[in-house]
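Final paragraph of the annual report: two paired records, presented back to back.
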Amino acid sequence: MSRNPDKSGTAKTATNKTTPNKTGASKAGQSIEAALEKALDPLATALKRATTRPAPAVATPPAAPGKPGLAVSPLAVPFPIIPPIGGVEMATARAGFYKHERDDLVVFRFARGTTCAGVFTRHKVGSAPVDWCRRHLDAEDGGKDVRALVVNAGCANAFTGKPGADAARRTASEVAKRFGCRQRDVMLASTGVIGVLLDDRKIATRLGDIEARLDADVHPTEQWAAAGRGIMTTDTFPKGSYAEAEIEGYKVRIAGIAKGSGMIAPDMATMLAFIVTDAAIAPPVLRALLGLHVRTTFNSVTVDGDTSTNDTCLLFATGASGAPRIGRVGDRRLKSFSAALDKVMLDLAHQLVRDGEGATKFVKVTVDGAASPASARKLAKSIADSPLVKTAIAGQDANWGRIVMAVGKTDEPVDRDHLAIRFGPHQAAIDGAVAPTYDEAKMTAYMKQSEIDITVDVGAGRASATVWTCDLTKGYIEINGDYRS
């Protein structure tokens, strides 16, 4: 995601270190073992390492790739093992958008014929990269042969007028020359401070290094994790997800990364999210799948109620799996794939909340008994976005009166005399009053947990909706108070 002076907006991790030889085996034995391991299939090797090594190495890199001085979120999860996905390569470099040492440029290279679809912010001040991607994906035959994705962190290139649009175009042009494709076949994304013009020369001068790294022999998990770190701003850990599906007996793979920590209240997309599959799927079908799943995943999380100028979610399909091409939206062969895609998107969306700026609690808000799905969603968002609710959760206080406030301040139908509120398994209110079984000690003990479930029945119908959020702590103020420093 992007900001001014805020910012634009998890992790199972693989490791490259070997487990110490605890049996005192000879050097010759170690050499044989190393040779055998090198000969193994990359996925088998990754699985072996994951089960024999005491701790993943990618989750907390020695040099924090995000903003210096930030502690890793207590809600962080490890980066997943991601096996090879045919038709995609990626590499990172330091372009210098940040003063401190870190990679802030990520480039994906895709095989010929890769299809693409995207959803973007509906913010009235969209960024130059958002305008670029939307224009080319919406064009006739848009998304039919996308060859590259270029992402920079540290500069949103939003609210920069024609100079910003020109910088975006020049970036696409330079990448297109190197990859032998059209400018329109290069997708762009940026994240960072709003109102700062992108210095595209910083990207152009690093493309040689990027190209060399694209051809380097690096395990895919490490590539994905590096890409996840490269797009971070105030994120404290890289966010990745992986799933598998089946299309007519062929196994297809889906992997993705996302970034986001603050300015999170997506509207049609998330801060930045990039998902790649080796399935063969036409652009209109990809668009339909994104539209189907974005509402209940990326658009159902909130950290602070603010929507970014740069929200972008792109889905790429390389077709390298060998599975038959899907060209029709209603094709029943998409059932398994659709479920797996939803899993990846929801996982990434949850990780955004887990890395919410200053967050210590992961909160699930469910509204039942609403008059319509739209009403349930609006009510759930009102609760999840309320500073009073979020600060009470930070203070481990089950202040259900604040939830009543958040529900009642909306224009949605609510039956006051049938309103019921639960914190996890504990009933706080029922039939519009304090529950007879309310136990302050049990409620206080529950609120000390790192994951909190809040369920509200508004007694106005049968619809329901779920939104995920986090608490609001002093850490959020500290991070945003010196964001540009």
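The closing record of the year follows.
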Amino acid sequence: MAQAQRVAVLGLGGMGQPMAANILRAGLSTVVWNRRQGPARQLGEQGAEVADSPADAVRRADAVITMVTNGDAVRSIAIDQGMLAAMADGAIWAQMSTIGAADTERIAGLVREERPDVVLLDAPVAGSRGPAEHRQLVVLASGPEQVRERIAPVFDALAQRTVWAGPLGAGSRLKLVNNMLLVFLAEGIAEAMALGHSLGLDRTAVLGALQDSPLVSHWAAEKLERIGRDEYSPQYPLSLGLKDVNLALYEVDIDRFPVATSLAGQWQRAVEHGLGDEDVTVLARALQH
């Protein structure tokens, strides 16, 4: 079966924009749409075709990527704005937004009812804006095996590797696992830095000790470096981190996960204090005051 040659990317936020740029750089014909026109125009200057609507973006696409904030946004694009109805027969829809297991099942139901000729893949990504810019994401994909070869050039263009997790929905469940570890890492970094502050240690010394520690991953080391610069512009915004924790807790008995439940409460308070649009690293600053 022919590989995907024309790709439509819908949603050009902190993740979607660099993902679309990498697909474009890989030489694939790329059409983009975004609610705000600025990011789409920037990609248009790099050679992408800019569509006026989700429906226009997908009409001739072999593969469609949605990368938006939540399940409501996915449904709005797919149904209210006509994307699903406009897709070509046999096209692949790679739903790459982090929307959780329940909303993924709802989207799958819509596709079965409205467009059974469209092939839905559940394929969220592990990584934030920095890894997206450098093609270091990991695609956590799930869905029919027969389209894996077709979608491979697209996933290879935007990620360092793809993990096929199983049948449709497994990718979103695996993303919840990935993000639970991620939020604990963010919280651990913040609390370690706050503890150093409370113990009267020089922040530079604490950062120096942690940066080369075998306990610190590349992702954590980059976060520590940003804390050292007091740089809290969003790569993984705190509000999205909170959303991810809540998506995971929605699927389980929260009494079995008391630490995650407590973390969600703490992050909720931080968001209510106006920190939601900052990177999760802002917790290190918040805990010191």
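Strands lie at 6-10, 29-33, 49-50, 63-66, 92-95, 119-122, 125-126, 137-141, 159-164. This concludes the annual technical report; the extension proposal builds directly on these records.
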